[in-house]
Design brief:
- The chain has a single domain, classed as Calycin beta-barrel core domain (Lipocalin).
- It contains 1 helix and 10 strands, in the order αββββββββββ.
- It has a 10-stranded antiparallel β-sheet.
- A hairpin with a 5-residue loop joins strand 8 and strand 9.
Length: 151
Amino acid sequence: MKRLQLTAAAICLAAAPMLAFAADPMVGTWALDAAKSKNLEPMSPKTEIITATAAGYKFREISEMHPGARQASDVDVVLDGKPHTLDIQGSKLTQTFTRKDARTIEISSLGDGQPLGTATVALSPDGKTLSITESGPPGTSAPLVRVYDKQ
């Protein structure tokens, strides 16, 4: 569940870097491409859509675990490198969002004061693919890599 919470936050934040600009390549709708993704967990959503708007750092994620079972998350993001507490799907997480460059965001997550893991959100040079590489705390399984195509 904690990894799912980290994933939800990372997904919701995937389009955050330059929303203040009209030509921001991360604004738009992104769809999970499970075939390109790696190490997806059995409980990973079958479909997943991320929508990022230029109206501030607001993101909406819609996941579908199986047909008809949709779940939505809305997240407001601050890319200032400082810890912020978020309510994601009813769970409180403390996360730090750091913008490394125009196409990269690093996220670190804590749950109950304990490290849950990190995520790196990266936009491809052509602006058509967004990847989220997620690692749990030391000693956990291989990184989860979710790949999204711009719609």
